[in-house]
Design brief:
Length: about 350
């Protein structure tokens, strides 16, 4: 019985893919190109080039043939040559994709293990940081305790320093006796007697500045520090004390004390002095403005005083333009004529 020629009869040895799910429908140009691109690799072994293949295929067909080997015998069943639509061909390609290989599975598992290790490391580092913070807090608390202890020690040291300073002040007061310290603290200073008003410029506590200088033909030149304290207690006289010390060792040297009296309504002055050298003397002179000049009137000494004996003494007190008190002492002995012996300048430290 005669049959219509089919695409399979036009291309002997080629089998068209079977379309499942319905009759072949029209294939668009884009679908045909996609289908051709998917099938072309399978035909790479054929002797047909791209130009010949396109010449032999019908121009109106959108199907691509797949080469098949000839049947081995006449009894082989006919090949299903029903054409497939392009959409199903694409779907068939995706469904035929190979499953994930074992290497990809291993790589994915390795990545998961690395992620887990990273999480473990992060948690461990967080715990470690927390431990370090605790250690730092303990160290800070320890340092704060040490600082507190040091502050307490410094406070105790300051208290000890204050006590030592108080003792030093007491020793200084013992070395430099001030008459005013003997008076009750609440008592007001006594009023100056008008008789001693001409000598008021001598009142106060004075310290040598610079150190005093001593010379004499029978002595080596020397220096000394001296404190002079001249005060009054309301009587018609002044009280004085001169205490000298070695400039380096602060060892006490010459000391003398006494009184300065004025004859009322005159400028005549009497200077009565007792010295630690065993000499007691009376000097007299005159005060003129801010200068006092006196000379020895009588000198007495102890019976075992060393020779040569002092026979005469002169003194001069003056308040200079800088407000400093100057004293010059000259003396004559049994072996030396009148010669300058001492010269010192004082600065006032208390009124």
């Amino acid at each position: 019985m005669p049959q219509d020629p089919s695409p399979a009869s036009l291309l002997p040895g080629w089998a068209l893919p079977v379309v499942r799910g319905g009759p072949a429908g029209p294939v668009t140009g884009r679908s045909a190109q996609r289908l051709k691109r998917d099938v072309e690799p399978r035909c790479s072994g054929s002797s047909l080039g791209p130009d010949k293949g396109s010449a032999q295929s019908p121009p109106s067909s959108s199907l691509t043939a797949t080469p098949q080997k000839p049947s081995q015998g006449p009894s082989a069943p006919p090949t299903d040559v029903t054409p497939k639509p392009a959409a199903e061909a694409v779907q068939s390609e995706h469904s035929d994709a190979s499953p994930m290989s074992i290497n990809e599975v291993i790589l994915s598992a390795s990545g998961a293990c690395k992620l887990i290790d990273s999480l473990h490391s992060y948690c461990f580092s967080a715990r470690q940081n927390k431990s370090q913070v605790c250690c730092l807090r303990e160290q800070v608390e320890k340092k704060n305790g040490e600082l507190k202890s040091l502050r307490q020690r410094v406070s105790r040291s300051d208290s000890q320093v204050r006590k030592l300073r108080e003792k030093l002040d007491q020793l200084r007061k013992a070395s430099f006796p001030y008459l005013s310290s003997l008076l009750p603290p609440s008592r007001e200073p006594p009023k100056m007697n008008p008789v001693v008003e001409p000598l008021s410029w001598m009142l106060g506590t004075w310290l040598s500045d610079p150190p005093g200088a001593g010379t004499f033909p029978t002595l080596q030149p020397f220096q000394y520090l001296e404190e002079a304290h001249i005060s009054h207690v309301g009587q018609p006289m002044l009280n004085f004390s001169f205490n000298s010390f070695h400039p380096d060792t602060r060892k006490p040297m010459h000391r003398e004390c006494g009184f300065i009296r004025l004859k009322p309504d005159t400028n005549k002055v009497a200077f009565i002095s007792a010295q630690n050298t065993g000499i007691v003397e009376v000097e007299e002179g005159e005060v003129n403005g801010q200068e006092l000049c006196i000379a020895s009137h009588s000198i007495a000494r102890i019976s075992f005083a060393k020779e040569p004996h002092v026979e005469q003494i002169t003194r001069k007190f003056r308040l200079n333009s800088e407000g400093k008190l100057e004293q010059t002492v000259s003396m004559a002995t049994t072996t030396q004529p009148m010669t300058q012996h001492l010269r010192v300048t004082y600065k006032k430290v208390t009124p």
